[in-house]
């Protein structure tokens, strides 16, 4: 299933945050969206998942989600959004219960996704016992459980420390290599963007518009820490973004 | 190494003079405090000390028998009450009134509180109404309840239910307001039904606030229980206290008060247990 954004624009009252966004998200690819703070990249992601409505334009699904897909558009949030009163297994089970998946079928799915995210030993732990990186892996496991057609990742690694972020990037690459998934990955971290993105979309500052789309050819599984090709791509991104970021930083917010 | 640009009359920077106190000293500790913890037996010790003080005062005649009854006499009265079997008659009736009244009030209060927390129109319509009935002293409405629900148990249940209802509503909608919105968005993003979101996300998330509201509303329920039993009840702790009070029988009055205090402590302990069981997920 592909996603097409056509002419997306959004304004809060007279305050324009996004304008004229046209973008195709082909299946099996990770599309990273980067941009200066306040450019509306998280808002764009909420449009794609149907949590908010744009004032202009449409988000279109092209084709049907693959069979067995329970929740085609599935989020991974920056702050994990785990229910603190449910165990790791319970948090995964939450999203299966409403699809009528219970009992042995649910247990099989839960143990499968926990194994894929290396959480099998922590099935009965409560979120308060887990580190930030583990919490985000639970959120990834929960997302995998509903077999999404497109994963919508909203700065998933931004609340984590630098080392954990490296580990999780490796985990995500592993997951993708074993079974390619489609994802829109919003971040302000250029290292993450060049490491995980097949394409990197650069948004301008408010009102956010697509400034540039950069393809990174190198296969995901060959990318690693301190890769010179990626460093070059990251430099190129930064060249494109620096002035925008500076201007965005100097703006007054919440007019 | 003198800088030529530096004016010659300016003194060269020198290291601060070595202090005569050359001995190493430990850094003074100035942290700590501001984190009270519960010390288990201190509360009991305060009770015991107060009772012993009253006993000593009344025995030596320093406190006159008219001011305060002797704690040992109160204890004797209590024992007689227990031996006569009347204690459980009073207590049983009072507890059943408390349970029924509070159950009605709390369950209605939680339902209305959740509705206020979730729907704009209900919120706009009911919040002013709740604010209007909250400050009414419910005891003042007792005659009205007697007319509406009769002199029997009905009016007593109604009084307690009404009294627990308003604080529960206020605590509940405040707690629902404080449920993390990102968790609700998460539920929506996974396609959970409205009812599932309320049951699995909103209610458990609001539980801490609801339980702390319950502490207040149950204390109010005990107060109203006594008020309700002062009117047209033959048995019940309130009736017992009222009877003792009209006879100026201070021992019995105090025995009744002790029962009420104990009831308050027990209720609060039960809520503490529930909190520990239900809210163990909190850090």
Strand order of the largest sheet of chain A: 5-6-7-3-8-9
Mean pLDDT of chain A: 88
Approximately how much helix is present in the residues of chain A?
Answer: 25-40%
What portion of residues of chain B belong to β-strands?
A: under 5%
Kindly name the structural category of chain A.
Answer: alpha/beta
The radius of gyration of chain B is 30 Å
Could you explain how this protein is built, in words?
The complex is a heterodimer of chains A (255) and B (283). Chain A is 36% helix and 23% strand. Chain A contains seven helices and nine strands. In chain A, the strands form two sheets. In chain A, strands 5-6-7-3-8-9 form a six-stranded mixed β-sheet, with helices on both faces. A three-stranded antiparallel β-sheet of chain A has the order 2-1-4. Chain A is globular and about 55 Å long. Chain B is mostly helical and 283 residues long. In chain B, helix 2 (71-84) packs across helix 10 (250-278) and helix 8 (194-229) packs antiparallel against helix 10 (250-278). The two termini of chain B are 60 Å apart.
Q: Any descriptors?
A:
heterodimer, A: 255 residues, alpha/beta, three-stranded antiparallel sheet, 7 helices, 9 strands, 23% strand, B: 283 residues, mainly alpha, 10 helices, 70% helix
């Amino acid at each position: 299933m592909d996603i097409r954004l056509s002419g997306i624009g959004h304004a809060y009252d007279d305050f324009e945050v996004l304008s004229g966004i046209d973008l195709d998200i082909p299946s099996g690819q990770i599309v990273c969206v980067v941009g200066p703070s306040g450019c509306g990249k998280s808002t764009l992601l909420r449009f794609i998942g149907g949590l908010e409505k744009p004032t202009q334009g449409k988000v279109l699904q092209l084709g049907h989600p693959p069979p067995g897909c329970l929740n085609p558009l599935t989020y991974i949030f920056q702050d994990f959004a785990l229910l603190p009163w449910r165990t790791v297994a319970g948090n995964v089970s939450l999203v299966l219960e409403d699809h009528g998946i219970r009992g042995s079928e649910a247990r099989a799915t839960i143990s499968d996704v926990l194994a894929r995210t290396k959480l099998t030993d922590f099935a009965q732990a409560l979120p308060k016992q887990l580190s930030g990186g583990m919490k985000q892996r639970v959120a990834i496991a929960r997302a995998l459980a509903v077999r999404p057609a497109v994963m919508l990742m909203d700065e998933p690694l931004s609340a984590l420390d630098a080392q954990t972020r490296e580990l999780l990037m490796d985990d995500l690459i592993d997951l993708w290599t074993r079974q390619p998934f489609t994802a829109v990955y919003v971040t302000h971290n250029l290292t993450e963007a060049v490491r995980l993105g097949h394409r990197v979309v650069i948004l301008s500052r408010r009102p956010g518009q697509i400034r540039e789309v950069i393809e990174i050819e190198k296969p995901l599984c060959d990318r690693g820490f301190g890769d010179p090709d990626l460093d070059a791509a990251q430099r190129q991104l930064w060249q494109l973004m620096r002035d925008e970021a500076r201007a965005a930083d100097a703006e007054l917010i919440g007019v | 190494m003198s800088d030529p640009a530096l004016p010659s009359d300016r003194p060269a920077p020198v290291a601060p003079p070595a202090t005569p106190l050359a001995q190493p000293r430990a850094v003074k500790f100035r942290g700590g405090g501001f984190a009270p913890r519960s010390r288990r037996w201190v509360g009991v010790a305060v009770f015991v000390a107060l009772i012993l003080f009253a006993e000593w005062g009344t025995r030596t005649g320093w406190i006159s028998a008219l001011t305060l009854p002797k704690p040992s006499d109160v204890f004797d009265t209590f024992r007689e009450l227990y031996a006569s079997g009347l204690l459980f008659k009073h207590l049983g009736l009072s507890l059943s009134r408390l349970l029924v009244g509070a159950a009605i009030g709390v369950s209605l209060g939680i339902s209305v509180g959740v509705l206020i927390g979730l729907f704009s129109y209900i919120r706009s319509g009911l919040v002013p109404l709740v604010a209007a009935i909250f400050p009414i002293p419910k005891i003042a409405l007792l005659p009205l309840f007697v007319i509406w629900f009769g002199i029997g148990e009905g009016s007593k249940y109604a009084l307690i239910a009404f009294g627990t209802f308003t604080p529960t509503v206020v605590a509940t909608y405040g707690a629902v307001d404080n449920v993390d919105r990102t968790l609700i968005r998460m539920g929506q993003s996974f396609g959970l039904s409205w009812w599932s979101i309320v049951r699995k996300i909103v209610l458990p998330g609001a539980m801490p606030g609801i339980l702390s509201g319950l502490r207040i509303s149950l204390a109010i329920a005990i107060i109203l229980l006594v008020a309700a039993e002062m009117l047209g009840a033959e048995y019940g702790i309130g009736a017992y206290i009222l009877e003792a009070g009209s006879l100026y029988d201070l021992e019995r009055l105090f025995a009744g008060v002790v029962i009420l205090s104990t009831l308050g402590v027990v209720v609060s302990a039960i809520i503490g247990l529930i909190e520990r069981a239900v809210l163990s997920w909190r850090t």
